[in-house]
C-alpha cells in the first residue's frame, strides 16, 4: 500500500499565487500600513462576500460606474453584487449594469 502524503492546512492568511506578490500584515500593523501601490482587502470579502480574484468584468463595471475602489466596498455591498451576478449566470444571462440598476 502506498504511503499517503500528509496535507498541512495552514492557519492564517488566504493563499495567493506567488506572482501576485501579496503582502500580509505583520502583527500590530493596520490597514493604513499597506505599502504604496498595494490595497487592503479583508478576509471577510473572500469568506463571507464570496469575492474572488481575478475579479469579473461585471464587478469592474460596478466599481467604475459608482466611482469607487474595491477597498471601499462594504461586505454587504459585495454580497449584493455577487448574489445578483450568480442569479444572472444561473439563468444563462450576462450580468450588466443596466440589469443591476433596474
Overall mean pLDDT: 82
How many H/I helical runs?
4
Distance between the termini: 60 Å
The biggest beta sheet is recorded as: none
Percent strand equals under 5%
Task: Describe the fold and architecture.
The chain has helices spanning 43-47, 57-66, 75-90, 97-101. It is an all-alpha fold and 102 residues long. It has a domain at 56-102. It is elongated. The termini are far apart.
Briefly summarize what is shown.
With 102 residues, the chain is mainly alpha-helical. The protein is built from four helices and no strands. The protein has helices spanning 43-47, 57-66, 75-90, 97-101.
Can you tag this structure with a few keywords?
102 residues; mainly alpha; 4 helices; 0% strand
Q: What is the element layout, followed by pairings?
A:
Blueprint: H1 43-47, H2 57-66, H3 75-90, H4 97-101
